[in-house]
Amino acid sequence: MTLPLSAEHTSTRSALLAARRSREYPQTSGQLRRGPSFCLLGVAADLAVKRGRATWDGDVLCLGEQRFDFGLPEYSDVILTP
Question: Domain span at residue 26?
Answer without folding.
Answer: 7-80
